[in-house]
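Our consortium's second objective concerns turning raw sequence data into structural hypotheses that experimental partners can test. To show how far this objective has progressed, the report includes one record in full. It was chosen at random from the queue rather than selected for favorable results. The single chain below, 302 residues long, was entered without modification.
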Amino acid sequence: MSSDEPKATPQGSLVPLLALLLALTGLLATDWAAVDRGALRSAMTRDLVRIAELANLRSVAPADPARASMPVTVVQEGGPLWIADEASAAVDADPIFTRGEPHVLRIEVVEHARTYGIRGQLWRQGWSLRSPEPLWVSPAPWIVLFSALAGAGWAALRGRMGGGLMVAGLLAQGLSMGLPWPASFTRPSLQQTWRDGPAGHAVVELARGLPDVSVAVGAGVITLCVLLMLFDHRRSAERGGGLLLSGLLGVMGAAAWIEASLRVGLAPWMTQSAGWAAMAGVVGLWWWAWRRRRLATPESST
């Protein structure tokens, strides 16, 4: 046996254990009710955008305050009573809707095993507007944690960081799609789920706010980056296109993990110290996996 081979030190072997303990401690210390409230408020914010589009309120010039604001009284129908408070908070933060009279904003709520479906209905001057489908929210921070830990474990065992990110992304997407669902409602398609989620909503709103020239420039930059990645594999002749494949897997896996994590409550979870502790454990485990790969890979390239 060669003495030049990297050896595991006691300190190095403690890193994954400490990272796991920190991550699990953060998960156990999580305020689940606060995560539910934050996720529902985010969904209500997105639903208000849909209602404003149906009522053609977003096209009104902001300089016209008499028409740019819509005073509404929030009325909840079904579900836990605390949702009305989160709906009112979403209205207060909305640039178009405000709390007041004479209009009514009725919030229809469906609740099943911590899966919530919400849909706003605007009653205005004798007619009503309602979003075609409810927005579904399933707060589950444990999916964020377990998928990231599983991906780090895969990366450490197989020495493939890109593969580990893909495992984390696929696992997060699969677990989020397997959460309990009310039998009387049809589960949305994957495309609709992505579009209505926080990440999809942000991308759509960003694209709408950009001029056509900016969208074209952005598409050109993305295409250029892909072409650069295609030619970059020449830097490693013995691996061929392995670097390209690993990079693509890593990017797609990270994007899938982020999208699913935002849908199951990553953002409100990170407003708690418990969420930060859990994510610190995740970062520590991924750092250990990366470090282990570096030590196990001979430095043959310059």
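The partners drew two points from this record. The chain has two domains: 11-30+140-296, 33-137. Residues 273-296 form the longest helix (24 residues). Both points have been shared with the crystallography group to help prioritize constructs.
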